[in-house]
Amino acid sequence: MFLVPVNRRSSELSRLFDDTFDQFFNAATPSTEAFSPALDVTESPQSWTVKLDLPGVSKEDVKIAIDGRQISVEAQVRKDDERKEGDRVVYRERTVSRFARSFTLPADVDQTESAAKLDSGVLTLTLSKKRASQASQIAVN
User: Fold this and answer.
1) Domain count of the chain?
2) Pairing assessment for the beta strands 97-104 and 34-35 based on DSSP bridges
């Protein structure tokens, strides 16, 4: 059996813990601030591959915008009310979370050839490089 001696210091520590818990308990409000997800970018001759961490996000809640070289990703996680009838929420930290990240690539992206896949909380964007338009030449007569 393990006994913890009770003294004035442990009492102060206990009170500090209780005060901290109460502070967070009373101030628990949903945050509207968006988190900036971590990302990795790799390049091949034909495309860029971008991987972003979006834990808990479903594919229906992801929005991707491509405007030339500018890429914007937004996502939202919704925590459904998982209570059983008769249960009362005592404390809640899991609320709505938002993710947002924008970045610029060195060249324009071909939207028609690009793709996105969400698997196990990782969004993988395969962004095809826009091919240079074929220059036409005119023969001089």
Assistant:
1) 1
2) parallel
